[in-house]
From TrEMBL:
Organism per entry: Arctia plantaginis
Name of the protein this chain belongs to: Uncharacterized protein
Record field: compositional bias (Polar residues): 112-133
Disordered: region residues: 111-133
UniProt xrefs under Gene3D superfamilies: Endonuclease/exonuclease/phosphatase (3.60.10.10)
Length: 133
């Protein structure tokens, strides 16, 4: 996103967690407002990380670091972790941001559900038949 969120401000708990890096800029303010309007949560702010694992961009001078790449989601409850990847070497001044999610399958595939439903009906029919006999 190339925005600076910085430290979360009061009243933004619908959008941010408790953790940030640096100071917010105007683009960061617009991004927070966008997230508020669209019910999105900024995943990078949900998890406590050491400063060396928060920054996502290194300036050409090699000293200035900022957290400017973010992941926003409408399903923060499935996010288990958000981290910056150090070990991938690619020709960029940005580091990759990764989230780990947990998706539980709540519904069985349709075919399996139909088979189970048919088995229940067969069992029910067999039980009724034995009662009536």
């Amino acid at each position: 996103m190339n925005v600076k969120i910085g430290q979360p401000a009061g009243g933004e708990n619908r959008v941010t967690g408790n953790y940030g890096y640096g100071k917010r800029n105007k683009r960061g303010e617009r991004f927070v407002q966008f997230c508020l309007q669209n019910n999105l949560k900024i995943a990078n702010t949900l998890f406590r990380k050491p400063r060396k694992l928060r920054w996502t961009w290194l300036s050409p001078d090699g000293y200035t670091r900022n957290e400017i790449d973010f992941i926003a989601t409408n399903k923060p409850n499935i996010i288990e972790n958000c981290s910056v990847i150090n070990s991938v070497h690619h020709p960029s001044d940005h580091r990759m941001v990764r989230i780990t999610i947990n998706i539980e399958r709540r519904h069985l595939p349709r075919k399996t559900s139909l088979q189970q439903h048919e088995n229940k009906l067969t069992t029910k029919y067999t039980q009724q038949k034995s009662i009536n006999s």
